[in-house]
Each structure stands twice: as structure tokens, then as C-alpha cells.
What does this fold into?
Amino acid sequence: MKFAIQVNEGPYQHQATDSAYQFAKAALDAGHEIMRVFFYHDGVNNGTNLTTPPQDDRNIVNRWSELGKAHDLDMVVCVAAAQRRGIVDEGEMQRNGKDAQNIADGFRISGLGQLIEAGIQSERLMVFGD
Amino acid sequence: MSETIKKFMYLNRRAPYGTIYAWESLEVVLIGAAFDQDVSLAFIGDGVYQLLEGQDTSESDMKNFSTTYKALGDYDVTKLYVEKESLEERGLTLDDLMPLTWEDEDDDWAEKDSIRLVSRAELADVLDDQDIVYSF
Amino acid sequence: MSTLHTVNKSPFEKNSLADCLGYAKEGSAVLMYEDGVYGAMKGNAVAEKVAAASGVKFYALGPDLKARGISEEKLAEGIEVVDYAGFVSLAVENDKVSAWV
It folds into this structure.
């Protein structure tokens, strides 16, 4: 089965990103394909490399980066939502005159078309939100 | 843009302005319009408030995006299902909502209503028929 | 088409479960997870509504029940507990997924 996953909330504030991650892991373990994980609304905050969660708690951003790397996942952060919330990659930094970038490993910033395409190309769209 | 045509449903259950979900979901609808899918929007619960006429954000300094709903017809997004029970629970009628229309080129560009007032049971059948449901 | 409906909020915080039940047709499945698992407990104010949903199969996510200290004895009758692998299977077995966030 080809899955697409939409994550609407940021790390720690809501359980949505945890649920999405656990679902993704279970789907991959069962041999399914995840063609894209799309982060929208506050979900874009899962893509910042500036978090320092407490040592005794899960590191949500790193967890996604590691899963992404292990399975070559396409983890997309919506550009419009990212601009509103300050998630910046090299391109956005240049384009918008910012003096820093903070996109975490394995994430890329792209447009909403990627979410629509995910809906068209996947067989199941899973939405995790609040 | 693609050979597959799926039935896309955008599920709207939240009021506007108190949170960003209503606006950011509309942004998905606008971008999605370019992909030529069979698009429907459903307004359930507080989602019906998104369509209230007369929204004026001048004193809130927030973006008034209500006019965007009026443009949906031009984007070929013509099926806006509004749940009757949700309106009634909120003391509202169709008259309280923005008049949203589209022009049917197959009918001599006749202006038609985009809002389809449906009961929960009817909307359940519509939802059942969809291929993909986006929730915000 | 069979639908897997997912509900992740407590029925006492939001009306997501109530909304979902208004739309869940016979032959569909409802998975309660995250705070939605509180909707699976017996004896609460929504238990009757859940029991009355004919033709709908209810599931609750085990890890979320455990996290919240809800033992299986506290669940309403007919609720099946699944893990994340079960969540995935439910998504595969049904024709589509509808998230009531």
C-alpha cells in the first residue's frame, strides 16, 4: 500500500506528530511505502534543527530525520506555512533576506502542490492533527 | 496535470480567525484547483461560520479572507456542501451565508449556487463516495 | 466504500467523536487514539452513543490506552484494542481514511 501522511501540528505541543511517526514506522515495518510526509500548519515546526528537548524525552525532530534517512522518505515542509512560522532553508534564506537557516536534516521546503500530488498518487492519505 | 481524477473532499469543521485552519485549508483548495480533480468542500459544525456574510476584520488587523470563497467558482470549485443541522444548531440559515456562485459554461454561463445545503445523512453519502479526505 | 474514521480528541473536549458518529456508515470502522481513547471507556456520557452506532466497528489504540492508565476492563463492550501495526492494517483494509481531528 502506498501511503501519504499529513502532519498538522508541531512537536511536543500535540501528540499528532508522535502518532504520525509511530504510524509511519509501523507501516514501513510492515513493508508498505510512504511516498511523502507533508508537514502543514504548525506541523512545519517539526522541521527545525533548533530544538533542544530534555535528555530524558524523545527527540521528535531527530527521530523524523533518522526515519527519513533510513527509509529515504520525502519529508516536505510547506513553504507558505514555513514562511509564516520561521522555518528556513538556504533558498528561503536568500529569497527572503534572512540571516540564518534552520531546516532539519532530511526535510525539504516545497509548495502545497506536493500535498495535492500526494493525495493523487497515494492510495491512503493519513492526516494527523488536533 | 495528471491522468487520475480522484474525488477530493476538504473537510472544514472550524470557525475562521480563532485559528488558522480555515485559511490555510483554503490555500490548499486554491492550489489544488490546478490539478483538475473532482473537488468538494464540506462545512460541518463550526466550519459553517467560515461562510458567514459580512466578515470585517478592519479592527482586528487580521487578513479578511472571506472574499476568497467568492472566487472559488472561478477556480472550478463549485461543490460547497453545508450541513443543515450545523446551521440550525447555530441559529443560522442560508440567508446568513455569503452568496457563492459559479458560471456553468455548459449551460450558457448560467450563474448557479455553489453552496449545497444538505442534511447530515445526505452529506454522509457524499463523504462515503469520496476517494481522499483532507482534514485541517 | 468502507471508511476508517479516526478520532483523536476526547469527546469531552471536542465534538469530534459525535461528528464522526454522525457520518460513520454501516460497515465502517472507527479508531479512537490519542485522547480519543477516552471515548472508548464504559459508563461515560458517550458510551450509549458508541453502543448505538449500529454496523460500526470500534477500535482503540493500545499504546494510547496504556499511557493514560486505561486498562482493558475499563473499556466499553465491543471495543477491540489494536497496536500501531493494527492501525496500519485498518487503514489498508478499509477503502479510505477520514480523520476527525
